[in-house]
Design goal:
Strand content: 15-25%
CATH architecture of the largest domain: Sandwich
Pfam families: HTH_18 (PF12833)
GO molecular function: DNA-binding transcription factor activity; sequence-specific DNA binding
Number of strands: 10
Protein name: Helix-turn-helix domain-containing protein
Structural class: alpha+beta
Oligomer: single chain
Radius of gyration: 24 Å
Largest sheet: 5 strands, mixed
InterPro entries: Homeodomain-like_sf, HTH_AraC
CATH class of the largest domain: Mainly Beta
Keywords: DNA-binding, Transcription, Transcription regulation
Helix content: 40-55%
Strand order of the largest sheet: 1-3-8-5-6
C-alpha cells in the first residue's frame, strides 16, 4: 500500500534526506545529479516540496507521475514544480540507475523584494501536467545547462549582497528560454497536440449533448482540463498556439453553433433555447449571439424562413 505523501519543508531537509552536504544557502540550492550516489529504496512513494523545483534529469529509468500523467527522464526533459505539488516515483532496482543532469530548488522566500516574486506565477509550465514537460533538443539543453552552471557558480561562490539579484536574473533568463522552447514544442509536437484537441472535441460534444448545459451551464475550464488530464493554463496555451483561441472563446463558438442549429431546425421559442443552452436570462443569450453573429437570434431565424 502506498503511503501518504511525505512533505519536505526546507531545502536543508532535502539535503539531509539525500545525504548531501549542508546547502550553502538556506533558500536555494543547485544539485549535480551525479552526486546522488545513495541507493534508492525500492517501491512507490510520493513527495511534496514546499519550494520550487527545476530539474533536468537524464538516465533515471524511473516511473514518475506528476499531476495526472506518467513519464520518464531517459532523454533531456525539463521538469518544473511549484510548492505544494505532488511527485510520485516508482523505483525498480533491477533497472540501471545512473542519473545525470541537475536540479535547482528555491524557496518562495528567496524571491522576496524581487521582480520574480510578482512574475513567477505567469510561467504556465509550473502547472503543466507531466506529459507536457519540456522536451529539449541538444542545443536547447546546452543553453539551459549553461544558465544552470552560472547559477551554480554564483551559489558556490562567496554569498554577498549581489548574489540574490544575479541569481534572480539568471532564473528569469532560464524562464524566458523555457517560454521560447515550449512554444516550439507546441508547434513541433503536432501529433500529441492534435490527439489532445480530438479528445477535447469528444469531451465537449458529450457535455453539450448530455443536457448538462441546462442544469450546470457551460463547463468550466478547470472541468475540461481535468477531463483531459492537463492543467487549465496548459490547455489555454495549446489552444492559443493551435487555434488562436482560448478555451472560453472555443466554448462560446460551440455554444453559438448549437444555438444556430436549434434556431434553424426547430420552432422552439428563443427563450426556451436560451434556457436549454444554460442561460438564465434571454438578454444574456441575445447579447452573446449578436456579438458573435451580428444578428439577433430572431433575425437569424427569419433568415431561414
Amino acid at each position: 500500500m502506498q503511503l501518504p505523501p511525505t512533505r519536505i519543508k526546507s531545502i536543508s531537509e532535502f539535503h539531509r534526506l539525500a545525504d548531501l552536504p549542508k546547502p550553502e544557502h538556506p533558500l536555494i540550492t543547485v544539485i549535480d545529479l551525479e552526486t546522488l550516489k545513495r541507493p534508492l529504496e525500492e517501491g512507490t512513494f510520493s513527495r511534496v516540496f514546499d519550494f520550487y523545483s527545476i530539474a533536468l534529469k537524464k538516465n533515471f529509468h524511473l516511473k514518475m507521475q506528476y499531476g495526472q500523467q506518467p513519464h520518464d527522464f531517459e532523454e533531456g526533459i525539463l521538469h518544473f514544480m511549484s510548492p505544494g505539488q505532488v511527485l510520485t516515483v516508482s523505483i525498480d532496482n533491477s533497472l540501471p540507475h545512473n542519473p545525470s543532469g541537475w536540479m535547482i530548488f528555491f524557496h518562495p522566500d528567496f524571491l522576496w523584494n524581487t521582480s520574480l516574486a510578482k512574475t513567477i506565477k505567469q510561467y504556465d509550465y509550473f502547472g503543466y501536467a507531466a506529459n507536457e514537460a519540456l522536451h529539449l533538443s541538444d542545443k536547447e539543453e546546452t543553453i539551459l545547462t549553461g544558465i544552470a552552471k552560472n547559477i551554480s557558480q554564483e551559489y558556490h561562490g562567496n554569498i554577498d549582497g549581489f548574489s540574490q539579484p544575479v541569481i534572480i536574473a539568471q532564473l528569469e533568463l532560464l524562464f524566458t528560454y523555457a517560454d521560447r522552447f515550449y512554444q516550439r514544442q507546441f508547434v513541433t509536437r503536432k501529433v500529441s497536440s492534435h490527439a489532445l484537441l480530438s479528445r477535447l472535441e469528444e469531451v465537449l460534444d458529450h457535455y453539450f449533448q448530455s443536457g448538462a448545459l441546462a442544469t450546470q451551464g457551460l463547463p468550466t475550464v478547470s472541468f475540461i482540463a481535468k477531463s483531459l488530464h492537463v492543467s487549465p493554463n496548459y490547455l489555454s496555451g495549446l489552444l492559443k498556439a493551435q487555434t488562436g483561441q482560448n478555451t472560453q472563446q472555443l466554448l462560446h463558438d460551440k455554444l453559438i453553433a448549437l444555438a444556430k442549429e436549434k434556431l434553424s431546425t426547430t420552432q422552439l421559442p428563443v427563450g426556451d433555447i436560451a434556457y436549454a443552452l444554460g442561460f438564465e436570462h434571454l438578454a444574456s443569450f441575445s447579447k452573446l449571439f449578436k456579438t458573435k453573429t451580428s444578428l439577433t437570434p430572431l433575425a437569424f431565424r427569419k433568415s431561414f424562413q
